[in-house]
Amino acid sequence: MKIFLMIMLFCNNVAFSQATNFDFDGKLYDKPIIFDKMNLPGVSQLKDNSIEMKLFRVLENGLTEEVLPLKDEKGKTYYKFKPNDKFYSRYKCNSSDASLTYKVCEKYVFYPKYGGHNHDGNIPPYTDWNNQQLTNPACSSVTQVNNYSYIYFKAPEFATRVEHTIQFYGACSGTYYDIIDIKIDGLVLLQPAWQDSLHGGVTYYQLVGETPSHPVNHFARPQTIDLLKQIAWEYYIEFPTAPVLCINDMSLIWGGKFDIYANWTGEHTFHRYGRQVDLRIWTIPPENRERLKEIVCKYGVEIELHRNGLPQTLENADFSWVPCQSKDADELDLKYKVPHYHLKFPKFDTEIENPPDEVPNCAKNKN
Amino acid sequence: MPKIKIKSNVFFQIYLAIGLFFTFDLSSEEIKDFSIEVDYSIYLSTHIQNLIYNLIPKFEIYKAKDLDPIIIKLYEFKTFMPWRPFMAYQTPTAVIGDFNGDNKPDLVVSGRNQKEKIVVALISEKENYRILEVWKSPLFENENRIFHYLTLITPTKISENKKFNRPEINLKTDTFVINFFEKSSSIYIYNGNKFISYQLSD
Known about the structure:
By secondary structure, chain A is an alpha+beta fold. Chain A contains 4 helices and 18 strands. Chain A has helices at about 1-20, 220-240, 285-300, 330-335, and strands at about 50-60, 65, 70, 75-80, 85-95, 100-110, 140, 145, 150-155, 160-170, 175-180, 190, 205, 220, 245, 275-280, 300-305, 340-345. In chain A, the strands form 5 sheets. In chain A, strands 3, 4, 6, 7, 8, 10 and 11 form a 7-stranded mixed beta sheet that branches. A 4-stranded antiparallel beta sheet of chain A has the order 2-1-5-9, with no helix packed on it. In chain A, strand 10 and strand 11 form a beta hairpin. Chain A is elongated. Residues about 1-25, about 30-35 and about 310-335 of chain A have low confidence and may be disordered. Chain B is built from 2 helices and 15 strands. In chain B, strands 4, 5, 6, 7, 8 and 9 form a 6-stranded antiparallel beta sheet that branches. A 4-stranded antiparallel beta sheet of chain B has the order 10-13-14-15, with no helix packed on it. A 3-stranded mixed beta sheet of chain B has the order 2-1-3. Chain B is globular, with a radius of gyration of 17 Å. At the A-B interface, strand 16 and helix 4 of A face strand 9, strand 10, strand 13, strand 14 and strand 15 of B.
């Protein structure tokens, strides 16, 4: 028996020591969207001097800067832009025969699963800087050799990896690849509460709202997560017998548009940068709500009631026939309309965002 | 726990009156702690069905069992009874109202085909109805419960909200909201030609 136990312990140790990022509830490892399973090529290296290819980004002040490729942990190269960034490809085909011309076409394929979207139907194409949809492939004009040609892109508002296949025609030839990640950097996952060793494995908040189209909906900036945990913990300590806070949509793994209807548009409008958090309201007893607002405000976070219906929806309804008169009318009203609390967390960086995120004003919490 | 089962039947037929019926099944004499189960059926005239099938073959209107139980729970205490003498009935997947202001009933239904979740509206037009696709979203293989539902909105004023690009709206006709449970909602207003949506919450 002892030998058996020793073998078991030994095996377990090996298993744990191999898992550097152990995921206790399997939340991430079940989701193929988190992992690079598509094995896309990196950015192509140019073979000779006959071709020049560069990418440029338009800065907030209207100037442009060259974008250099980055390397991921596997050594693959890629470019990085933010959702809605304007950028362009610049090409040049060098030749001693100045009478020749060339043309470049870029075929692009979106892989939005990298951005946390478990759906890939009807993906809208790139647009140009005037928001006109680009063809696929997008092509430059026919250009005289030794002159630059350009293709202009506007990054989509959703996060995605994009594979560009670049084809030269005319005086220059060849096929090249670019990988472009469109993402908001630095978002981290809010783990289930019981995995938080700082709070003794207590379930002091619950994660809700996962859907098949967006199976992991709890990413945010590290500062947002720290404050959110603090808020949830204080609420739990103050109201230990009440249900814990239920945390609904935050942001997707790479941020950007969180299209809850999986159609690349519409709602959510916010939840792009890891600073917006939805809270379930109907599990928070009415008598606790004012105190929750105070706790939230202490950390500079604004709490806003988002109603899903309109105040008049139920006003004229007759409840007299419902055999449960003991229920509080306000509660019925609240429950029926199913609003939620929308929390806006402070911004701790100076990055300019497009569209800009909402700035919290916790003075509004008292309204 | 005693249970009350509410059954509602929404009839929608051109030129015919609309009926709404309830049945109550008390399974115990004790009336203390109630759990109310809501079920409903939607019946469309053949003509209306054909209009829908012409636009969306194999369209199926969502039934109560297709909704996540939490959506049905929202209707525990909600009356299906009309609060106007004119038609104004709603279920989570079918809403009857006068969306174009011609005093004839219009309909919006939520359902699916093989690939998508779809909301379609039927707007009265002289002697017939015009069908409009209002909204759609891809359907997932493992999506066996839906979280979106419809609610009727009667004429009212809706305040401006700049962050949602929503102007002040003075609603003169009925309209409806597509809600995603606890996530967001948008109101759909008919402008004489198509439905325009404005976000209400995020």
